[in-house]
Amino acid sequence: MHVVSRYTAAEAAATIDPRGRAIALSVVIAAGALLLIMPPVIGVTGTLSLLTALIAAFGVGWGFTRGQSWLYRSPLAATRWAFLLSAAGWLLALVAWYGGQDWPALLPGVACGGAGAAVAWRIAAGRTALPGMRVSGATVLSVAIAIAATLLTWHTAGGGRHGVCFAFAVLLDWALLGALDLRLRKDMQNELKNIQQRMGITFIYVTHDQEEALTMSDTIVVMDKGKIQQIGTPEDIYNEPKNAFVADFIGESNILDGVMLEDYQVKFFGRKFQCVDKGFAPNEPVDVVIRPEDIDIVPPEQGHLTGTVTSVTFKGVHYDTIVDFKGFKWLIQTTDYCPVDSFIGIRLNPEDIHIMHKSEYSGLYGDYSSYSAEYDEIADASEEEADEE
Fold first, then answer.
1. Which of 259, 275, 247 is CA-nearest to residue 367?
2. CATH code assigned to 252-388
3. Where are the alpha helices (DSSP H) in the chain?
4. What tens digit of pLDDT does each residue of 325-359 get?
5. Distance from the CA of 193 to the CA of which of 67, 97, 130, 140 falls in 20 to 30 A?
6. Sheet of 296-298, strands arranged across
7. Domain boundaries, the chain
């Protein structure tokens, strides 16, 4: 009578379906490939240490499994538990990584991940597995796909601790909301923010609408001709613009030529003003930014500066008032109505004066002469229509 070994069935089952071996090996190869391109992030020492831990854990798992005959009695269940151990290890490593820990905190996760994958590979290969043809086409293909996906993810993300977030990002184009009316567009902005918060993923929203950028963003990237001008929170971008382009693009701005006399003191329009900025060279030419809503209208005798109102437009919640100060036209947004040709004064608080270094954009933005001309054209057209009627 011929006696069949009790392991024969398990080994035969393992050789029939190579997918378990392919998945287990591809996980380890993908982890190794990712570690090989991480020296800029965690350093050479960290990379070599984690690679050593991965290889050692895989070897220990392989050797341990080979000597444990009981694992081959229920190979399917054992493989599942091995994959569970491996997944728990990689999850532990990811938690440590995105938690901002240094590379030693990743060692336990990498070790568990490598050991679990080795156990799964060894059980799926069979107790008497031989090298050579056991590495099937499915294994090779799975490993190749894993490496390609790893490298592509890294390249797309640009590296870094938050790189993989790109794999879960949603890219939204400004045209998505551009065709909607104002009320519906605002509702959609709120709905998109709610979706993003519920799903916990990254939205990359491309827009030319400054209000949408401020309303929907946690971080804003302002670009001009493909070059990044400033990155920051909406508050930082609005309150502390880096140059005239950013100041003009995000919100309305009056941008004036000035001279930084010393820390906390600037001169423009022939008058000295206190400000909250420092770190500039003495008498350095600068750009002075004053937001329209930060300007207080007062009687002329109480004002730091005086000028003549040239245009007034009602915007619902405020008036857009254009005022001529010595040939430079300012935009003031106020709830106070000042008739055209009235003579007014303005006061400026130190915290409302923002100082910027001169840049290639200096002199291109901030004068509302053309803005005033557009209002005049609209007013003239309205008067002509009224005369025709």
1. 247
2. 2.40.50.140
3. 8-16, 19-36, 39-66, 75-98, 107-125, 137-157, 175-178, 182-199, 210-216, 234-239, 244-249, 369-388
4. 888 899 999 998 999 999 999 999 999 999 999 98
5. 97
6. 296-298, 343-347, 305-314, 319-325, 328-334
7. 8-161, 170-218, 252-388
CA 367, CA 114: separation in Å to the nearest integer? 64
Nearest to 230 by CA among 214, 246, 206, 218: 246
**pLDDT single digits (tens) 299-325:** 999 999 999 999 999 988 899 999 998
In contact, 306 and 343? CB cutoff 8 Å: yes
* C-alpha distance from residue 191 to each of 156, 197, 263, 329, 365 (Å): 28, 10, 45, 39, 34
Quote the CA–CA distance of 286 and 263 in Å, as a whole number.
13
β-partners of residue 223 are: 228
Residue with tokens 């401020």: 214
Q: What is the pTM of this model?
A: 0.50
Sheet holding 265-268, edge to edge: 271-274, 265-268, 254-262, 284-290, 354-357
Strands 271-274 and 343-347 turn out to be unpaired
Burial class (CB in 10 A: 0-12, 13-18, 19+), 315: exposed
CA atoms of 25 and 144, how far apart (whole Å)? 11
Distance CA 91, CA 159 (A): 19
**Residue 33, token pair as written in the block:** 């490939």
